[in-house]
Amino acid sequence: MQKRQKKNATKNISAGERIKVLSKTLVSDIATTSELGAGKRRLAHVMGMYGTILFWISTVVMIFMYTSPSTITPNIWPMLWHAGGLLTVLGGCWFWFFLRVDVYSEAQPWYRIIKADLFVLALIATSLFGLIWSYLQNLDLGNRWDDKVFFVFYVVANLILFGGIYWSKFAHMFYKPGAAIQKNLAEADGSRDNLPPEADAPEQFGLGIKREEPKHY
Q1: Domain extents in the chain
Q2: Cys-Cys with 55: which of 84, 103, 190, 211 at CB 3.0–4.6 Å?
Q3: pTM above 0.70, yes or no
Q4: 32-63 as b/e, with b when 16 or more CB fall inside 10 Å?
Q5: What's 155-180 look like in SS3?
């Protein structure tokens, strides 16, 4: 496959050009999910992505860097943890209830769940149960069961999130950036992933395309 792409390449790109393509891909396609265009879907993905990153990083920092009971955790980390969790819940719920392709375009009910949905649901549940657990702890309920139950829910949601990788869409977090880099490099050297060149002709879709917003995938 790679030999065939090299054979189809129309130009050799230098190391500087490769770095330029990688930088553009990182800033545009990965950091801001530009492939989704300007709209609600992109905003929901950005909210969920950066919320998850903040939530995970602050969790790791608070667990492994401030382990001693005598150590005071700086206020910034709990603030980032709560902000990340809230962004994840808002972005994830917005996507799940309103923007999923099978709901938005195929008229499937929002409660239809398949194995691939484990990632999104576990991601939302992890942040949601974590925020509820944090809120109940702040109420200082003593030895009541409330916060302990939601802590168990929080742990179980994490186990499903990371333990269900084989069936879920977790891997696409790592696959899509790699695919975006490969696509842009292939366009830069002219090999186009062995696809035919773009047609040099006007786009003709007929008047029917004006009847409704394009949303069928």
Answers
A1: 14-185
A2: 84
A3: yes
A4: ebeebeeeebbbbbbbbbbbbebbeebbebbe
A5: HHHHHHHHHCCCCCCCCHHHHHHHHH
CA distance 3 to 75: 54
Cβ neighbour number for residue 156 with a 10 Å cutoff: 15
Residue type, 122: A
Enumerate long-range contacts of 104-109, CB under 8 Å, 24 or more apart: 104/215, 105/215, 105/216, 105/217
Rounded to whole angstroms, the Cα distance separating 8 from 195 reads 10
pLDDT digits (tens, 9 = 90+) for 34-77: 777 777 888 998 999 999 999 999 999 999 998 887 888 899 99
Greatest alpha-carbon pair distance for the chain in Å reads 72
